[in-house]
C-alpha cells in the first residue's frame, strides 16, 4: 500500500478510536470517521479496511503485539510456583502498561468500554486469541476449584467489567488533567480487587449473571 496508504490507515484508526470512545460505536458513521480524519473520500474506511467489522478488528489488533510481548516478559519472571495474584498481574499489567505508553489524550480504554456495550463489539472481542492469556486463565481456575462454576463465571464477568470501567474512568481523568497518571499503581490496585472478587467466600450459589454475561 505504501507509506501514504499506511499514514491514511493510521489516521482513520486514530479518528475511529476517538469517535467510538467518545460517542459510542453505533453513533459514529464511516463518513464521520473519514471527515474527522481530514479525508475527503467518504468511502475511505471501506477502501482501506473493507468494512466496519474489519476496522474494529484493526483497532483491537493495533497494540496486540506489544501487549503480548509484555505478557511474555512478565510470565518469564513469574517463577515456577505463581499464586493467584501473580497470575492476575500477568493478565492485567500488560493492558495497563499499554495504556501508559499511549500519547495523551488516549482513547483506548474508553474504546474497549464502548465495544463491550454492544453485542457486535463483544463478539469481535471474543474472537481475539492469545494462547498465553488463555493459559493464564486456566491456571487461575486451578486456584478457584472451590468456587462453583456459575459463581466463578459471574465473578469473572464482574472482574472484566471492573478492569475496563476503572481504566476508562482513569483515562478520562488523565485527559482532564485531574490526576497525574500512575498506571502501574492503578494496575496493582485492580489486581488486589480482582483477587478479592474471585476468591471471596461463597454464601449464595446461583447462575445470577447468565443473561447479562452473554449480552454485555
Structure description:
The chain has helices at residues 2-23, 30-36, 44-49, 52-61, 64-76, 84-101, 108-115, 119-126, 131-142, 149-175, 183-199, 210-215. It is an all-alpha fold and 216 residues long. Helix 6 (84-101) packs antiparallel against helix 9. The protein is globular, with a radius of gyration of 19 Å. The two termini are 37 Å apart. Residues 211-216 have low confidence and may be disordered.
List the keywords:
216 residues; mainly alpha; 12 helices; globular
Which ranges are low-confidence, i.e. pLDDT below 50, for 5 or more consecutive residues? 211-216
Mean pLDDT: 92
What portion of residues is helical?
Answer: over 70%
Structural class designation: mainly alpha
In sequence order, what are the helices and strands, one letter per element? HHHHHHHHHHHH
Distance between the termini: 37 Å
Strands, total number: 0
Into which percentage range does the β-strand content fall? Answer: under 5%
Describe the sheet with the most strands: none
Number of helices: 12
Give the overall shape, derived from the CA principal axes: globular
Radius of gyration, Cα only, in angstroms? Answer: 19 Å
Amino acid at each position: 500500500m505504501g507509506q501514504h496508504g499506511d499514514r491514511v490507515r493510521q489516521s482513520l484508526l486514530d479518528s475511529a478510536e476517538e469517535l467510538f470512545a467518545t460517542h459510542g460505536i453505533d453513533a459514529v458513521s464511516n463518513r464521520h470517521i473519514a471527515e474527522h480524519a481530514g479525508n475527503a473520500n467518504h468511502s475511505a474506511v471501506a477502501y482501506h479496511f473493507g468494512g466496519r467489522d474489519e476496522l474494529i478488528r484493526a483497532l483491537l489488533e493495533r497494540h496486540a503485539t506489544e501487549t503480548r510481548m509484555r505478557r511474555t516478559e512478565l510470565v518469564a519472571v513469574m517463577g515456577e510456583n505463581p499464586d493467584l495474584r501473580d497470575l492476575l498481574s500477568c493478565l492485567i499489567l500488560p493492558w495497563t502498561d499499554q495504556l501508559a505508553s499511549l500519547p495523551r489524550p488516549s482513547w483506548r480504554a474508553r474504546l474497549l468500554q464502548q465495544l463491550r456495550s454492544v453485542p457486535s463489539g463483544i463478539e469481535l472481542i471474543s474472537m481475539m486469541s492469545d494462547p498465553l492469556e488463555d493459559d493464564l486463565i486456566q491456571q487461575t481456575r486451578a486456584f478457584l476449584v472451590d468456587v462453583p462454576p456459575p459463581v466463578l463465571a459471574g465473578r469473572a464477568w464482574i472482574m472484566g467489567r471492573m478492569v475496563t470501567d476503572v481504566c476508562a474512568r482513569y483515562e478520562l481523568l488523565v485527559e482532564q488533567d485531574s490526576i497525574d497518571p500512575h498506571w502501574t499503581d492503578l494496575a496493582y490496585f485492580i489486581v488486589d480487587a480482582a483477587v478479592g472478587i474471585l476468591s471471596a467466600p461463597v454464601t449464595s450459589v446461583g447462575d445470577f449473571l447468565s443473561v447479562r454475561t452473554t449480552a454485555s
